[in-house]
Specification:
220 residues, mainly alpha, MetI-like fold, 9 helices
């Protein structure tokens, strides 16, 4: 049965809202996890503020392990854990769990990359003034790297948009679920095109906002 695209728009908007909700919550939670993980990677590495080579090597390996798992495999592999956390393995709430686990180590590496861009001379100057490692992280590392961190979080957000679409394979809701349920399984080309265009629009807006915020902070 052919679906009238004009009559279907309310469902498309609902799916768009679900996608934005998934991405927003996942990004917030993954950043809360990934930011401290990235800081730990920087301060414990060779010549870091709290250099600890054995810890760094082990911790880095764990981060790389989770980062290397393809999202679609992770999505299926942790279904029992997802069901334990949210009481269900389908729906928008259920999709957030694997999205957070997938993106947190990725954000950790992005944060690490941003912090490593801070000039060593700035860190040395803070140390010579008697600043503690925590003070250097809070008052030097993060402010100096903030513009880069925002750009990298923009990249992470775009990755989450793509991953949220893949969550549709297991009934995760959002535009991906709509595209699979109607655009692919029912051969509704119009709906497939509409969902793809909306995803592209979300990505473009995200990149534009991220670029603007990064430049604004860099000028200050």
């Amino acid at each position: 049965m052919q679906v009238n695209l004009m009559e279907f728009w309310p469902r498309i908007w609902e799916a768009t809202y679900q996608t934005l909700l998934m991405v927003g919550i996942s990004l917030f939670a993954a950043t809360l996890i990934g930011l401290p993980l990235g800081i730990i990677l920087v301060v414990t590495r060779h010549e870091g503020l709290l250099e600890n080579k054995p810890f760094f090597n082990g911790f880095s390996t764990v981060v790389n392990f989770f980062r290397s798992i393809p999202f679609i495999i992770l999505l299926v592999a942790i279904l029992p854990f997802t069901r334990l956390i949210v009481g269900s393995s389908i729906g928008t709430a259920a999709a957030v769990v694997p999205l957070v686990i997938f993106s947190a180590p990725y954000i950790a590496r992005l944060v690490e990359s941003s912090l490593l861009e801070v000039k060593p001379g700035v860190i040395e100057a803070a140390e010579s003034m008697g600043a503690t490692p925590w003070q250097i992280v809070r008052r030097v590392y993060i402010p100096e790297a903030l513009s880069s961190i925002i750009l990298n979080l923009t990249i992470a957000t775009i990755g989450l948009v793509g991953a949220s679409a893949m969550a549709g394979f297991v009934g995760g809701g959002g535009l991906g679920d709509l595209a699979i349920s109607y655009g692919y399984q029912r051969f509704e080309t119009d709906i497939m095109i509409a969902t793809v265009l909306l995803l592209v629009f979300i990505v473009q807006i995200t990149q534009t906002v991220g670029n603007f915020a990064s430049k604004k902070i860099r000028r200050q």
